[in-house]
Amino acid sequence: MSNTLRPYLACVRSTLTAALTLEPFPSQVSERHTVAEIEAQSTPEVLLTPLLISRNASEQVLIEPSINSVRLSIKIKQADELEHVLAHKFTRFLMMRAEAFVILRRVPIKGYDISFLITNRNVEDMMKHKLVDFVIQFMEDVDKELSEAKLSLNARARIVAESYLSTFA
Amino acid sequence: MSEIYQLTSAPLTAHAFNPTRSQVAVSPNTSEVHIYSKDTAGGWALSDTLTDHDKLVTSIDWAPNSNRIVTCSHDRNAYVWNPTPSGGWTPTLVLLRLNRSATYARWSPNEEKFAVASGARTIAVCQFDAESDWWVAKHIKKPLRTTVLGLDWHPNSVLLASGSADGVARVFSAYMKGVDSKPEPTPWGERLPFNTVCGEFASPSGGWVHAVAFSPSGEALAFASHDSTITLVYPSPNAGEPATIIPIPLPSLPLLSLVFTTETTIIGAGHDCQPYLFTLSSSGEWSLTKSLDSGASGEKKAVGGGGGAVGRLNNSAAFQAFRQADSRGVVAGGQQAAAQPGTRLTQSGTELLTVHQNSVSSIRAYSYGSGGDVEKVSSSGVDGRLVIWDVDGGVAAVGAGVGKLGI
Predict the structure, then answer these.
(1) Which residues of B touch A129 (CB under 8 A)?
(2) Which residues contact B49 (CB under 8 A, 6 or more apart)?
(3) Which residues of B touch A24 (CB under 8 A)?
C-alpha cells in the first residue's frame, strides 16, 4: 500500500510545479483591480482544466490552476469515525489560523478537507520550489499527525479505562 | 561571462536599458520606476525615481535614438518621459482612452509611435500631437476579445504582432496616415489600412500567448504560449497560400519572453528561471540547443548546500543516498528526476541551481555584434536580479559571479 505514496507525491509535485506558473493579471471585469481568477471565475479563458490526482478513492488532490492563482484541495484518508472526527478537528484548527499560513484557505472546497489558495503575490514573495516542498511535506505530515493522534487517543482511553475499572476490581 | 546584479529584493516586473547601457529603468513591482546608473565600481546605484503612476508599472521601454522612456501601468495610463537638461525626467501626457489596465508597451523601430497592450481588449497605438504636446491613441479593437499580453513591432514600423489570453497571436497593421509613409509590400500583406488583421495563429494545444517576436528581417514570427511551445510562423510570399507554422515543444515550463538574436536563433526565458537558446539547423529544423545557464546542468555546486554534519558516517555518499530514499523517495544510486530541469532534490528541499531564483519576467537584447546580431541579452527576474548573458553561452564565470554576491 505504501508503495503508491512515492509516485502519488511525485505526481502532485510535478503537477503543482507546472500549475505554479503564475503571473500578474489585471481583472478584465473591474478596472484597476486584480482578483484571484480561480476564486472569481468571471473570465473563462484564463482558467485551466482542473486536475484530480487520486491515490485511491479516499485520498485525492484537486489542483485548479488559472493565470494568476492556483487552488489545491486535499482529501485526507479517513478510515473510520474516529479518524473522521480527528481530521475534522485538525483541519479546523489549521483553517482558523489561515492568516498565519498565508496560503491556506479558510473554507475547504466542497468534498475536500483542506484547501490552499496560492496567488501570484505569494509566488513573488516566496520561492516556488520551496512552496511546492512545503505542500508535499504538509501532505506527508498530516497523515502522520492523524495516525499519531489516533494512537495516543487509544492509549489514553485504555489508561483511563484501566485506572477507572481497577477501582472495581 | 555573465554579469549578475541583485538590484532589489522585490520582483523586477520590467526593465529597459538606455542607449549607452549606462542606465537601466526598472519597475520593482510597485507604482514607481527606478532608474539606476552604473557607478564607478561597476554596480548600479539608484539615481532617479519616477512616481507619476498610481498602480503597478507593468512595462517600460527606452527608445534608443530619441532617448525617451514610455511606461504603462495598471492604472490605465501611460506616460512618455523626456530627459531634462538638469538630468531629471518630465512626463508627457498620453491619452490612451483605456478603461482597463495596460499590460505592455513598446516603441516602434522608427520611434514615431508606440503601442500599448491592455486588458480592455484593445491595443492603443499612439502618435505625438505637437500642437497640444500630448500623445493621442488610435485603438485596434476588431478581433480582440481578451487581454493582450505581449506585443512586438515589425522592422518597418507598420506591422504589429500581439499575443493574447485567448491563445491566438495576431499580426495587425498599425499604419497611421500622418506618421507613416507607405510601407514596402511584405509577405504579411500589401495595402494595409489601420486595424487590418494580417494573420491569426494559434499553437497546437492552445494556451495563452505570453510573448511574440518578429525576426530581424520581419520574415518570421515566433510566439511562446502556455502549453510550453514556441511556434514559428513563416508567411508565404504568394497571397492566398497559408503560412508555414512550426511548433517547437519544450521539455520545460512555459516561456514568458522571447528575443531573436539572429535570423536563425531565438533566446527565450520564463518560468524555468533560465534562458534557452533555440537554433534553426541547416536542415531546416528548429530545436532547443542549450540553456545559457551552464550551472543549471549541475556542473557547479549548489549555492549554500545543505548539511554540514560532523562525522564520517554523516557525510558519506551511501548514507546520504539511503537517507534520501527513506525520507524523500529519491532513488538510491541515481538522482531522481527532479520535477524541473535545473533543480536538485536535497535533504533540505529542492534547490534551484540556476542564477535566477524565480521566474524570468523579461529578456531583451543588450548589445549587438558586428553583423547586427545580438551578442548579449539582459534578463530581469521575479527574484529581483538583473543578469546580462553572453549569447554564445559557455558561462564559465557563473560561479565567480555568484560568489561575488556573497550568499
Answers:
(1) 340, 343, 349-352
(2) B32, B33, B34, B35
(3) 13, 56, 58
- What residues 105-144 of chain B have any CB closer than 8 A to a CB of chain A? 119, 121
| pTM, to two decimals | 0.85
**What is chain B's percent helix, strand, coil content, to nearest 5?**
5, 45, 50
Q: Closest by alpha carbon to A69, among A15, A119, A132?
A: A119
Contact at CB, A14 and B339, closer than 8 angstroms: yes
- How far apart are the C-alpha atoms of B352 and B297, rounded to whole Å? 11
Tell me which H or E stretch contains B248.
Answer: strand B244-249
| Grid cell 529519491 in the structure block, residue | B330
Does the distance separating the beta carbons of A26 and B147 come in below 8 Å? yes
Compute the nearest-CA separation of A3 from chain B (Å).
10
- Which amino acid is present at A113? D
| 8-state DSSP, B56 | -
Residues B17-74 have pLDDT tens digits of 999 999 999 999 999 999 999 988 888 999 999 999 999 999 999 999 999 999 999 9
Residue B325: band (very low, low, confident or very high) from pLDDT cuts 50, 70, 90: low
Mean pLDDT of chain B: 84
ipTM, two decimals: 0.87
Cell 473570465, residue? A43
Do residues B195 and B140 lie in contact, with contact meaning Cβ atoms separated by under 8 Å? yes
Whether B271 contacts chain A with CB within 8 A: yes
Q: Which of B350, B351, B353 to mutate to test the interface with A (most CBs of A within 10 A)?
A: B350
From residue A44, alpha-carbon distances to A39, A66, B165 in Å are 12, 9, 10
pLDDT beyond 70 at B1: no
Residue A59 pLDDT greater than 80, yes or no: yes
Closest to B29 (Cβ–Cβ): which among A34, A124, A128? Answer: A124
Contact in structure between B287 and B392 (CB atoms under 8 Å): no
Q: Identify the pLDDT of residue B306.
A: 33
Residue B372's pLDDT band, with cuts at 50, 70 and 90, is: confident
Give the pLDDT score at B347.
Answer: 60
Residue of chain A nearest B254, judged by CA positions: A21
Which amino acid, one-letter code, is at B278?
F
Neighbouring C-alpha atoms within 13 Å toward the C-beta of B288: 19
> Tell me: the pLDDT tens digits for A84-126?
999 999 999 999 999 999 999 999 999 999 999 999 999 999 9
